[in-house]
Amino acid sequence: MEARAKKKRDNSYRLMDPDDETELLTVQFYDRSSIINPCLDSSVRFVVKLVDEVVKMYAEAQVDMDVWQFGGNEAKNILLGGGYSAYDLPKELPFSKSPA
């Protein structure tokens, strides 16, 4: 969605706040570009659109969708501790610098 925002100047489904300078590392060693910033209205709009489209696909296939597992348990900054304090990087809470 970042490429779309930059190329088409379309922020309607943007998942990252371009003004957020938070330094973080997820448990899979990804930076903040790998997680959805929940502070943005565009992130909510993206999730609603995603779920709506999947629900439509299930309905078209005439298959029940009783459960939705979105995940979302990885927005943790391991730089805050838990055995990873050896990294010499700023230690900040996820999205702590997001002005959204």
Keywords summarizing the entry:
single chain; mainly alpha; 2 helices; 27% helix; 100 residues
Description:
With 100 residues, this protein is mostly helical. Helices cover 27% and strands 0% of the residues. It has helices at 2-8, 41-60. The relative contact order is 0.24. The mean pLDDT is 78.
Poorly predicted segments: none
Shape: globular
Round the Cα radius of gyration to an integer and report it.
16 Å
Q: What is the overall number of helices?
A: 2
Q: Roughly what fraction of the amino acids lie in strands?
A: under 5%
What does the oligomeric state look like here?
single chain
Helix content: 25-40%
End-to-end distance: 17 Å
Overall mean pLDDT score?
A: 78
> What characterizes the major β-sheet?
none
Could you give the order of the helices and strands? HH
Quickly give the structural class.
mainly alpha
Count all strands and give the number: 0
Layout of strands and helices, then pairs:
Elements: H1 2-8, H2 41-60
